[in-house]
Design goal:
alpha+beta
């Protein structure tokens, strides 16, 4: 079944009420971050949908508690949605499983205009930082390997350890056998 991310996100943004805006502000997100998100990314900063995060790590809208839903933008287009609860901002689920990072376009731009970037631990932290840098929302995505192109990545100690481990495991080193090769001619 094909997921209509645009329709689901429109429903999510239409569900935002003043108490949701107040709660986001209480969580440390500056109001201008939400207001300017649409100008920077062409999508509202967040929405609200009820649902659950299943055992596979995907957000399933429907019955369940309210979740903050953020658009995952790649190449200027809506690639996915990431959902999390304000009581558990470090546990999130992707709607379609296709997005890899909030701020993906920034994270993919290493060397173009900057040599360093910032990685946030959670989608909430990314909002708190004013949507600067990025937040990896799918650690198994192959795009995570491209972060090795950055000269410097600023992040927390725990995330630095996870990132280093993830980048190192992606670099498969072949068996290299030293032999004395002689000219057969």
């Amino acid at each position: 079944m094909k997921i209509d991310l645009h329709s689901e996100y429109r429903l999510a943004t239409a569900a935002v009420r003043q108490p949701h805006l107040d709660r986001i502000r209480e969580l440390g997100v500056h109001p201008t971050t939400i207001a300017e998100h649409a100008l920077r990314f062409r999508f509202m900063g967040f929405g609200i949908l009820n649902g659950t995060i299943n055992s596979g790590g995907h957000f399933v809208p429907g019955d369940g508690p309210a979740h903050v839903v953020q658009p995952v933008i790649e190449g200027g287009e809506l690639a996915d949605l990431v959902a999390w609860r304000s009581l558990q901002p470090s546990r999130w689920g992707l709607r379609g499983g296709k997005g890899w990072a909030l701020g993906a376009d920034t994270l993919s731009n290493f060397g173009s205009w900057a040599n360093s970037t910032t990685l946030c631990e959670s989608p909430l932290d990314w909002l708190r930082l004013g949507c600067a840098g990025g937040c990896i929302v799918d650690w198994d995505a192959p795009e995570v390997e491209t972060l090795a192109g950055w000269e410097t990545i600023e992040t927390s100690a725990s995330l630095a350890l996870a990132l280093r481990s993830r980048i190192e495991r992606s670099r498969r080193i072949p068996d290299i056998i030293a032999k004395d090769l002689r000219n057969a001619a």
